[in-house]
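Dear Dr. K.,

Following up on our conversation at the group meeting, I've run the structure prediction for SH3 domain-containing protein from Streptomyces orinoci. I'm pasting the input sequence below exactly as I used it, so you can double-check it against your construct before we proceed with anything downstream. Let me know if the numbering doesn't match what you have in your notebook.
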Amino acid sequence: MRRSATIGIAALLAGAGALVAAAPAGAAPAARSSAVTAVVVAPPKGKVVSREPLSVRERPTTSAKYLGALKPGSVIELSCKKHGQNVLGNDIWYLLAAKPGYVSARYVKNLAPVPLCKK
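The predicted structure tokens came back this morning:
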């Protein structure tokens, strides 16, 4: 029974690829790579769902300086979200990633989770 249990465990480990060859005594340890892998994360996106062009503002309020507009149906990159002026029950505003300015979240459907802006 003892021998069959040992053989069974060895077969299980071999099947899982868990057997490791030991380095000879006195061998130098393997060199460790110091390379750093950079992970690039694309900013979250949102889709403009307004019926008319969506105003881009300098700050998260409708009274802030007008910076331009986004066409309905446009898919835009969002940097982060911030609380601002309430627009039809929604006080979230998105900071755009590709250009300066904020847009009201009331008129943007986020297509991925958007983090809060760091102060």
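Two things stood out to me. The chain has a mean pLDDT of 82. The chain has one helix and seven strands.

Best regards,
J.T.
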